[in-house]
Structure formats: C-alpha cells, structure tokens
Write a structure and sequence with these properties.
Helix content: 40-55%
Number of domains: 2
CATH superfamily of the largest domain: Alpha/Beta hydrolase fold, catalytic domain
Number of helices: 11
CATH architecture of the largest domain: 3-Layer(aba) Sandwich
Number of strands: 8
Largest sheet: 8 strands, mixed
Structural class: alpha/beta
Shape: elongated
CATH topology of the largest domain: Rossmann fold
C-alpha cells in the first residue's frame, strides 16, 4: 500500500493552484483586453489625433496599440458650407435632451429635384462629406448632412456602430419628409451606409433611393478583418470585441448585418433603386461583401466597383466614375 507523504500532497496542491491560475488568466485576460478595446472603440475621447489605419502601422506600433489600446477622438465639425444653408436640431427623445444636428444646403437658383440625406461613417462628422454634398447640390438636389448621435453637433460621445444610428437616420428621414421636395434619397458612407439600410429595413424609413458607399457586410466580419490587420488572432478576438462592445454600449452587435437587412427589404417587396459603391482594394470590407450586399438587394440594385480604391472616399478616388454612377441613379429616382 502506497503511503502519501505530506510533501507530495503539498506539491500536488501547488500544481493544481498553478493550473487554476493559468486557466483563470487564459479566461480573464483576453476578456479584459477585449473589454478595454471595445470601450475605447465605442466611446470617443475628448481631443487627440485620429489614429492611423492598421495598414499604415509598423509591427511595433501594432503591438503597442494591441497592448495599450487606441483613443478615437470625438469627431467634430471643421469647415462649414460656404453657401446658404439652414441648421436643424432634431429632438430624438422629446424632453430627454438628445438632439441631432443637420445642415440643409439650400438650392436657390432652380426648382430642386429631390433631397438627399447624407450620413458619415465611423469616426467622422458631417463636415467630412461637404464635397459629396456640393456635387449633389450642383445637380439641383438639396443635400442634408446629418450628424448621428455621438458626433459633431449632435448629443453624446459614443457610437453603436450602426445600431442606434439607424434609428437616428429614420428619425431624420421623417423630419425632412415635411419639406416640399417629393423625392428623398439616403446616401451613407461605411458605417453610415449600414445605418441608412437599417433605417429603411428595421425602422420603416420611407425613401426613394439608396446610395451605399463602402458599406460593411456583417459587423463581425468587418471587426475580424480589422483584428487580422493588427496581427492578432481574428477569432475569438473579433467575437470578444463585438460581445463586449454590445454589453458596454447597450446594443446587439451580432445582429448588425446589412446583408440581412437588404434581404428583408427584398423579401417584403420594399426595395428601392439602390447603388452599391465599393473599392475593389478595400482592406477592411472585401469586394465579395459588396457583391453579396448588392445581390441581397435584388435587381433594383447596381454594384459599381472602383479599381484600386480602398476604404476611402470614393468621390476622391475616382470622381468621374462616382459622378456617372450617382447621376444615373438620380435620373431613375427623380427624372429631370
């Protein structure tokens, strides 16, 4: 019969404690890092410089960002439109102090053909899309530049990556429907495109046309691509980031799926003429996602790819191609 010495039992206990500590660290540390990063990505900081995209970072800079996190400054409006415009404050929650700010650029030299509500992407405010607005205005379209909640002149300093932003867009659509222009288009860029599609599919926004520029396909896929660009394991890194972003932000990031929203519109017979604009060298949202989105929207959607363009302003990458594509959609929605 084997005799267990007191020292053997103590060593076994120490080994168990060490393994338990390793297991706890393996569980706690990734979640702690993910929670810290998710908070930083969904809650804008006051001041500072906008971080450079992952593809511009060195290996050392990527490691530092992974360890220390990243501060995304709250997007503020810089330049203002140099022509006539009206500023509108829209109550999101009457009595709750939550407002959205929008600029409605006026067209005074002719009868306007339509309105277009323009929504910026992640980490950007409405002033970043002034060039887009000027090009719409040159065609006799009244551009309305919107700051969703958390950016620019609107309330708050956080983002839900398209969830509550979709509600904001729907509220703004109902507000600007009261103006005399009979046709209203939505034009969103990146996260703004996902919010526009969600406003129509999930919140009943009534629009006559959609321009979806550099729209992400599914949030988890987009986050996975970002994590991969940073040199970290895409899974479970992306899933942890979406999980903690959802918990800390009070939204369901796993349900943010523009492809599903597009399929909902098509299945319910609520599709409208749509334009999907995408750079074929986009490192964050691959071109396959744009094809899937256009396919889900159905035969009333057209996909236009911009050779060599990344996740950037496509009007800046290829202005002539951008003009031709959007002009064709406008002629279909609001014939001259």
């Amino acid at each position: 019969m084997a005799v267990t010495e007191p020292g053997d039992e103590q060593r076994r206990r120490r080994r168990r404690r060490r393994w338990l500590a390793v297991a706890a660290a393996a569980l706690v540390l990734p979640n702690a890092f993910a929670a810290a990063h998710a908070w930083a990505l969904t809650h804008y900081a006051q001041g500072g410089e906008r971080p450079r995209p992952p593809q511009e970072l060195t290996a050392g800079e990527k490691l530092g960002r992974l360890l220390l996190g990243v501060r995304v400054p709250r997007p503020e409006n810089g330049a203002r439109f140099d022509g006539p415009f009206d500023e509108h404050d829209i109550d999101v929650e009457p009595g709750g102090g939550v407002t959205l700010e929008a600029w409605r650029l006026l067209v005074l030299d002719r009868r306007p053909r339509a309105q277009v509500l323009i929504v910026p992407g992640y980490g950007a405010s409405k002033s970043s899309l002034l060039e887009v607005a000027r090009r719409w205005r040159a065609r006799g379209v009244v551009p309305v530049l919107l700051d969703p909640r958390g950016v620019g002149g609107s309330s708050g300093s956080s983002t839900t990556l398209g969830a509550r932003e979709g509600e904001d867009v729907a509220i703004a659509v109902r507000y600007f429907r009261r103006f005399p222009e009979q046709r209203l288009l939505l034009h969103g860029v990146s996260q703004g495109a996902a919010a526009c599609l969600r406003a129509v599919a999930r919140h009943g926004a009534q629009v006559d046309g959609l321009v979806l520029e550099s729209c992400y396909g599914r949030l988890t896929d987009t986050v996975r691509a970002r994590v991969r660009q940073m040199g970290a394991p895409a899974s479970p890194g992306a899933e942890l980031l979406v999980l903690w972003g959802s918990l800390l932000g009070g939204f369901n990031g796993f349900a943010l799926d523009p492809v599903e929203d597009a399929a909902t519109l098509r299945s319910e017979g609520r599709g409208v003429p749509s334009l999907v604009l995408h750079g074929d060298a986009d490192p964050t949202v691959p071109v396959e996602a744009a094809r899937e989105l256009a396919g889900a929207l159905g035969p009333r959607a057209k996909l236009v790819l911009f050779p060599g363009a990344g996740h950037v302003s496509l009007v800046g990458a290829a202005p002539d191609a951008w003009e031709a594509a959007t002009a064709k959609l406008l002629d279909e929605v609001a014939p001259p």
